[in-house]
Amino acid sequence: MKKKVIGLCAILILTSGCGKIPTLENGQEAIVTFENGDMISVDDFYTMIKDTYGLQTLINMIDTYVLETEFADYLETAEVQADYYVDSYIEMYGGEDALLQQTGYQSLDDVRETLYLSMLQSHAIEEYAKMQITDEQIQEYYDNDVIGDMEISHILVTPNVDEDATDEETDAAEEEAQATIEEIIARLDEASANGEDIATVFGELAAEYSEDEATKDDNGELGRINYGSDLGTEYDELIAAAAELEDGEYSTEVITTELGYHVILKTASYDKESLDDVRDEIVDTLAQEYITNNDDTAINALQHYRREYGMEIQDSEINRQYSNYIQNLLLQLQESSDEQN
Questions:
Q1: Integer angstrom CA distances of residue 4 from 10, 106, 114
Q2: Is the CB of residue 318 less than 8 Å from the CB of residue 55?
Q3: How far is it, in rounded angstroms, from Cα 29 to Cα 47?
Q4: How many whole angstroms separate alpha carbon 212 and alpha carbon 218?
């Protein structure tokens, strides 16, 4: 992408430095000439462009310059991500031509450059959000939300629902799955009252009932897990429930996740990592919360970096358009927020 900018600059230099360029009587260079001697000047062209779609083009040029300079170590990542999304969109739309037709872009390079800038802007927004996080917030999150790893076993029961099931059939299947978990909990209660080894009984029940094929024959063991583990966010409810249990205890209420219904057994727990070890992860988490909770983060972030580089629009008309553009964005966000409230 830099090569294209450099190439464009080279063309402009060559154009203005080689050959005789027609000029109007007032000295302006002509960009188009006609056989009768009339001309369209560069200034006329510029005025027309800036009054139509010139502002967005200029903003893109500004952000490309600022963000490529500010985040030079992120450029390769942004390019790789852009290429990935281009390939994904080609597959989703059913080919390159279909992608261009349905999105209105002139070429894949145009798509790629748009995505590339979007990656840079997203990265800038995240980095800006991180700067808003205080040491007090980090400490509070560490004290209240960071937990040590745990070893958990689970039994999963999923509702038996066909794609064409009615609402009544779906509700019945949900109730049946929950009832099965409640039956399992009752059997664990009975085993506990009789002094049986809960881990052994849990493993037997997992083999009999669990629909997690990866763990059912291994006592339902999920291994050592925590928030952010490889299992994904689907298991966050299990982790939250396990955090309330002592080692050797099982859940006495049905746990619901997007996967289905569960009962869990906590088999081991470990001390949580030091604040220094998890600080970056905490900042990432709090930054995402900040972005979610502050609709104007994107605007404020990009404005911040533009100001950091002393960006000033010298053309008074475009500067007016830019100010209106920012104000309109903020107004739209406020109106959207008011509607939601």
A1: 10, 15, 14
A2: yes
A3: 14
A4: 10
C-beta of residue 236 within 8 angstroms of C-beta of residue 227: yes
Chain centroid to Cα 242, Å, comes to 28
Long-range contacts of residues 53-60, Cβ cutoff 8 Å, at least 24 apart: 54/318, 55/318, 55/321, 55/322, 55/325, 58/313, 58/318, 58/322, 59/322, 59/325, 60/117
Q: How many CB atoms lie within 10 A of CB 7?
A: 10
Distance of CA 50 to the CA centre of its chain: 33
CB 22 within 8 A of CB 29: yes
Per-residue burial over 131-140, b = 16 or more CB atoms within 10 Å of its CB, e = otherwise: eebeeeebee
Tell me how far apart the alpha carbons of residues 321 and 327 are, in angstroms, rounded to a whole number: 10
Beta strands in the chain (DSSP E): 30-33, 39-41, 150-157, 221-225, 255-257, 260-269
Q: Could you tell me the two tokens for 186?
A: 């009752």
Q: Quick check: 253 and 181 in contact, CB under 8 A?
A: no
pLDDT < 50: residue spans in the chain: 1-21, 24
Amino acid, single-letter form, for residue 255: I
Residue 253 and residue 97: Cα distance in Å, rounded?
A: 54
Q: Which residues touch 2 (CB under 8 Å, ≥6 apart)? A: 68
The CA-based dihedral angle spanning residues 187, 193, 199, 202, taken in that order and rounded to the nearest 10 degrees: 0
pLDDT of residue 133: 97
Q: Which two tokens stand for residue 1?
A: 């992408």
**Alpha carbon distances (Å) from 143 to 98, 174, 196, 279, 289:** 52, 37, 36, 12, 17
- CATH architecture of the domain covering 148-269: Roll (3.10)
Read off the pLDDT of residues 69-85 as tens digits, 9 standing for 90 and up.
Answer: 999 999 999 999 999 99
What pLDDT is recorded for position 32?
Answer: 79
- Token code pair at residue 68: 């490529």
| Whether 221 contacts 151, CB under 8 Å | yes
